[in-house]
Amino acid sequence: MNKVFTINPETDFVLERNIDAPVHLVWEALTKPEHLKQWYMPRDWGSVSACEMDLRPGGAFSIDITTADGQSFPNLGCVVEVIPLERLVWTSMLFPGFRPAVFDDIPITAIMTLQPAGKATRYVFTALHRSPSDFRQNKESGWQEGTAIAMAQFVAHVESLK
């Protein structure tokens, strides 16, 4: 795998898991809206009310969240890279078509990699932030905790597909 960045612990968040499922099931759960709706949002916090994934560079990566108290939060980003069964990269710093985004939230670039590990899959989620300040704000907002919960839900969902 060609690594195009170096992890900076002051700006980057990394979660790694071994998932007891083949790569094709992990990829399916990661890239199909009907699966993503099952695991993306911590269940006690809310749900995914709409999802669109146009898996090509410049395509839309859109996830609308509805919180437990009924508030709705649209999240629109742009797919940057797709290597089926291996790597998916999207960013909230761009809108579809690589248009510069306008946002009032903390932007991230999310990199998800999959690697066969025997009959299992090594899955790595990395979120790149613009600055240590953005990363700190995200941690304080509960984003990091929510991402860890979503990762646990993702692993359980994938393993239920076997």
UniProtKB/TrEMBL annotation:
Gene3D superfamilies, alphabetized: 3.30.530.20
UniProt similarity note: Belongs to the AHA1 family.
Domain called Activator of Hsp90 ATPase homologue 1/2-like C-terminal: residue spans: 20-157
Protein name (record): Activator of HSP90 ATPase
Superkingdom assignment: Bacteria
InterPro entries per UniProt: ASHA1/2-like_C (IPR013538), START-like_dom_sf (IPR023393)
